[in-house]
Amino acid sequence: MAKSEAMMLAEMYEKTRLLTRYYLSKLKEVDPFVAQGSGDAQFNSIYWLMAHLAWAENYLVVEMTGGKSVAPHWLNHYSLGADGSVHEGHGSFKELLDDVKAVHEKSMQYLSLLSDEDLAKENVGKFQFGDGDATCRFSVQHAIRHEALHTGHLSLIAKLNKQKTV
Q1: What is the pLDDT of residues 20-30, one digit of tens each?
Q2: Which of 48, 72, 93, 120 has a Cα-to-Cα distance from 102 of 20 to 30 A?
Q3: CA–CA distance, 82 with 38 (Å, rounded to integer)
Q4: CA angle, residues 61, 66, 68, in degrees to nearest 5
């Protein structure tokens, strides 16, 4: 049986998440709560980046396609335009990673059930990025490329911390 488009998008997201996890594994000795960078080129902390990825996955894959949030409410602190701070009362980095994993698993379960017709509908927020495409399909595609962008940040943080990455 052929895979649905949603299943292929979920598979691509999984491959992207594996790359995120690979670079994250290179950062075990780096304080996840400290912003990283050099000079004027500063990145958010690893904690912030991972929380932001979970927020974005829930927002772009689930909420924008009409689903009910699968993320803890506090992840809204890490939304688009957030100030880069870690929320008050945050848990440990391990607790965050457990939440990131849960959001990802629930989002991928949700995504894999979407039909081609669901993907072709206009997304809830009418979100588009430059070319006028505001479909649910685009929202999911953007979530995948958004994750890859921040995976690049993790890669650069690893290099700044003298980690061998390839």
Answers
A1: 999 999 999 99
A2: 120
A3: 21
A4: 80
